[in-house]
Amino acid sequence: MNPGKLKFLGIWGLVLVLIVMLGSLELGAKGEIVDQETYREVELYFSNPQASYLRTENRKVQKENLYLNTLQELIAGPTSNNLVGTIPENTRILGVYEKDDGLFIVDFSENLVEEHWGGTAGEGITIYSIVNTLTSFPEIDAVKFKIEGEERDTLAGHWDLTLLFTYNEDMVEKESQ
């Protein structure tokens, strides 16, 4: 075979390999390249500016340790200027694990309690920001909270944290609101 023809076929082969590789990549929320095979798009629930309802923001997170990574993105806060973070930024996730079929326990550091801004509405927004984010995964039906490995009666004095929490559609802002 002609060397020029071999070079031509080699270049086209390389181009095809690059096209296939780039087909599994896309740009993330911050403009970074995201590999679709190792990342998954998730819905994060953040507060509206009035702290009266939750709104969603989609984000790509690594599939490995998916729930932990999703909660870390929630703590990192929104990228949109029309949304407000719901979890104190110094909060750490000490564990996320399945207790029973569909029931997940989330264990947070004391920072969630100590640095929370309080108020009934603020506490509800924080709780359901976490709960609605996690229960958007089909395998998670309910969420139970722990702080430093212990069950707490309340986050900031208003909501009963001893309960199991499920997705709350009433906390999500409707288009007309």
Question: How does this structure look, described?
Answer:
With 177 residues, this protein is α+β, with helices and mostly antiparallel strands. It has 2 domains: 1-37, no CATH class; 40-171, no CATH class. It is 29% helix and 25% strand. The chain has 4 helices and 7 strands, in the order H-E-E-E-E-H-E-E-H-H-E. It has a 3-stranded mixed beta sheet. Strands 1-2 form a two-stranded antiparallel sheet. A hairpin with a 6-residue loop joins strand 3 and strand 4. Helix 2 (66-76) packs antiparallel against helix 4. It starts with a helix and ends in a 30-residue tail after the last strand. 24% of the residues are buried. The mean pLDDT is 87.
Features:
alpha+beta; elongated; single chain; 2 domains; 177 residues; 3-stranded mixed sheet
The average pLDDT is 87
Report low-confidence residues grouped into runs of 5 or more.
Answer: none
- End-to-end distance: 69 Å
- In DSSP terms (H or I, runs of 4 or more residues), the helix count works out at 4
Helix share of residues?
25-40%
Round the Cα radius of gyration to an integer and report it: 21 Å
H/E element string? HEEEEHEEHHE
Total domains, how many?
2
Main sheet properties: 3 strands, mixed
| Shape, per Cα inertia axes | elongated
Strand content: 15-25%
Instruction: Supply the helix-strand structural class.
Output: alpha+beta
Give the total of beta strands: 7
Question: How do the strands of the widest beta sheet line up side by side?
Answer: 5-6-7
